[in-house]
Amino acid sequence: MITFIVKDFKDFYIIDTGTYDVKEVEAYIRPLVNVLDGRILSVKGTYGVLRKIARQQFDDDFLIVPKGGEVPPSYYTIDTDL
């Protein structure tokens, strides 16, 4: 059932804020990523974007895609200034 729900998830990002062990997080999510034939990417960043998510403050740092919508190809690059 879980593979059906997340079948389109291929890229999993870890935001390396320097406050936790990235390798531990990677080891924790690796089994799910392997099942989904995905990949794990680590990007340097601050925890500011995580704070925004927790506060539900979705601004220009986020792309909101409605159900059934598609992500424009221009968004497939990683902005390492998170």
Structural commentary:
- Helix 2 links the parallel strand 1 (11-16) and strand 2.
- Helices cover 32% and strands 15% of the residues.
- It has a two-stranded parallel ribbon with strand order 1-2.
- The chain is of the alpha+beta class and 82 residues long.
- The model has no long low-confidence stretch (mean pLDDT 83).
- It has helices at 2-5, 22-35, 48-55, and strands at residues 11-16, 39-44.
- The radius of gyration is 14 Å and the shape is globular.
- The chain starts with a helix and ends in a 27-residue tail after the last helix.
Task: Write a concise synopsis of the structure shown.
By secondary structure, this protein is α+β, with helices and mostly antiparallel strands.
List the SSEs and their pairings.
Layout: H1 2-5, E1 11-16, H2 22-35, E2 39-44, H3 48-55
Parallel strand pairs: 1-2
Which labels suit this protein?
alpha+beta, 2 strands, single chain
Q: Give me the count of strands.
A: 2
Strand content is: 5-15%
Quaternary assembly: single chain
Instruction: Catalogue the unreliable spans.
Output: none
Biggest sheet: strands side by side, in what order?
A: 1-2
**End-to-end C-alpha gap:** 32 Å
Query: What value does the average pLDDT take?
Result: 83
Shape: globular
Radius of gyration of CA atoms, rounded to a whole number: 14 Å
| Share in helix | 25-40%
